[in-house]
Amino acid sequence: MSTNTIVILVAFVVYMGMMILIGALNSKQSNNEDYFLGGRGLGSWTAALSAQASDMSGWLLMGLPGAIYVAGTGEVWIAIGLLIGTVLNWFLVARRLRKYTIVANNSLTIPSFFENRFHDKKGVLKIVSSIIVIVFFAVYTASAFASGAKLFANVFGTGADDKTAYMIGLIIAAVVILVYTLLGGFKAVCYTDFIQGMLMLVAILAVPIIAYISINGDLVGALGAKGVADPQGYLSLMKDGEGNPITFVSIISNLGWALGYFGMPHILVRFMAIKSDKEVKKSRIIAIVWVILSLGAASFLGLVARGFLNEDLVASGKSEVVFIKSIQQIFDGNIFLVFIGGVFLCGILAAIMSTADSQLLVTASAVSEDMYKGAIKKDASEKSALNVGRIAVVVVAIIAFVIALNPESSVMGLVSDAWAGFGAAFGPIILLSLFWKRFNLPGAVAGMITGFATVIIWDYIPFGGALLKDTTGLYSLVLGFALALVVAVIVTLITKKPSAEIEEEFDKVNTVEI
């Protein structure tokens, strides 16, 4: 093992040790509200950075820059869609969801909110939504594990095709995330997310700026020197990496990523945990600024790296390690520089861990609160419910581990599938639940199932030997969200209106100050 590798390894060990220590220091929770929502006591900075760090997983530093590295500025439409979604989520959903979950019997999870919002005595919505959480978070967590494995394989091995290094990285990423999630619960996850959010931001801002300075600010010239046939086209929002015009369907699909935010349980639960309306207003400003900086820097990195890197990652098919390769090329010097590079590489680890821990915790709450205590054993003690939740974390982590075993797994592809599933199934239901008094239980069930089924059919079931997402080029989230919304509205209008009690709760949210 070289000196450089040892120095980077030290940086990794110190960082991961800090995260586990935070989990241990926050290992005492008196009840499920402490473990799953931190006692609803998040301050503005912690809530904002935790929400955005758990949102921007390994794909921010690997998937997004890699996609832009290959296809040019035309792929920035995804980042624009994500920014729009972030802004709308904080302004439309955050404050009202926080208040409504308190009014609706102090709901601790999204499935329990659905149940309490519609007074679902049979628990149909809770069970359906819990199943959706488990299915798509297994896929989403797999993307984080795959990111971690690729990071370790490229830093300590010979690349993602180094199966031994990939496997070791996969095991380490899974174990560290599991340990501090099981130990600390929601507070540990949020505190680590705060630290990780800051580290991610510093890393993603610094690296593209240094790379840009290294090419003397002449991006067009650098792109041409690295073999990009049409540098001006590569830098155009309306062309792809080969200079071809971007289709309307492609732009709509990429902007459609904005719709996913309304249905992301690991983001929505942060809104529920903020301690006051005043903190929500502060949080939204912090979060939006963080997102503008991080998405802008990640997009810029993809472009600059195409003209900066000595290695052609398009030819080798390894575009998702563009951030890793950029750091290694920049900080290839004395031990001090290598250590700084190791700290920046921890930014990728931060992105991975901040999302995976959040997803595992939401999965635990869905199984513990919604399925076990809510439907299977309603008289279960707090302790037994917590234990069931922790077991669920381990089981889902194992499933995600198996999904991520393939070194060829696309981080962006896995995130895309999970994002579509949550956005289509939950997004329309969240919005209608918060803003439409007439919305009822049959409409919610029908809309949720429609969104879920559309994504499954579109992304996973081949027709004529091909998947519909490939033959049409349309992102399943766009279609699934639209169909779920239409079905939910139609079914609601042709079925019985909600009870007076449900309508009174809806009106109370408009006036209550919590």
Fold and architecture overview:
- The chain is mainly α and 514 residues long.
- Helix content is 77%, strand content 0%.
- The protein has 22 helices and no strands.
- The chain has helices spanning 3-25, 32-37, 44-55, 58-71, 76-103, 110-118, 124-156, 163-214, 219-225, 231-234, 248-255, 265-273, 277-308, 313-316, 322-330, 335-376, 382-403, 411-435, 441-460, 468-472, 476-493, 500-511.
- Helix 18 (411-435) runs parallel beside helix 21.
- It is globular and about 70 Å long.
- The chain starts with a helix and ends with a helix.
- The model has no long low-confidence stretch (mean pLDDT 87).
- Which regions are unreliable across 5 or more consecutive residues at pLDDT < 50? none
- Amount of beta strand: under 5%
DSSP helix fraction:
over 70%
Order of helices and strands, N to C?
A: HHHHHHHHHHHHHHHHHHHHHH
Class computed from helices, strands and strand pairing: mainly alpha
Biggest β-sheet strands, sense, barrel: none
What is the mean pLDDT?
87
Q: Assign an overall shape.
A: globular
Q: How many β strands by DSSP? A: 0
Radius of gyration: 22 Å
Cα distance spanning the termini? 57 Å
Q: Count of helices? A: 22
